[in-house]
Amino acid sequence: MKLVVGLGNPGKQYEKTRHNMGYMVVDALAEMFSCDFDYDKFKGVYGICKNPVLPETTIFAKPETYMNLSGEFVRPLLEYYKLSTDDLIVIYDDMAIPEGRIRLRKNGSHGSHNGMRNIIDLLKTEEIKRVRVGIGEPQFSGVDYVLGKPTGESLELANQAIEKAVKAVRDALIHDFTYAMNHYN
Fold first, then answer.
1. 110 among known catalytic residues
2. Taking 70 as the threshold, does the pLDDT of residue 141 lie above it?
3. Which among 41, 45, 58, 48 is positioned nearest to 8, based on CA atoms?
């Protein structure tokens, strides 16, 4: 079994913001594999997908703890389904990556992303596969930027990044994470 978690903030005011790139990727993956978010437990929502295209049952999940407490959802979900961090892929926005680009890594620090920081702290490891979706450097306050909704060319680039991230995670699930890294980095 695999667990794919998209990070974001719950609520209408955060929909389609740069900080919710993880949510948008997981929503698109769930749609691709005809998976509904049927479960509302552990401070988040998730769906269990048994699509014949996928070699393993896959859980697509979104914490509803707000970004900074994402680990409070991820850890109990991993424990409940008796999964290891090797079964986990986390998707989130990253200002250090240009808009429209993605980067896959098998491990590393949180890179100042508070959602990832909380997950690393609670799981006590940096050995977590992740897909970082580029939102680019802000030209003004970081908080206003990540909580803003992209428009114009930025929106086009955001949509390209979401599409790339969806394909990368799909390939990571069907083949393996190294395969996806080699094709999308």
1. no
2. no
3. 45
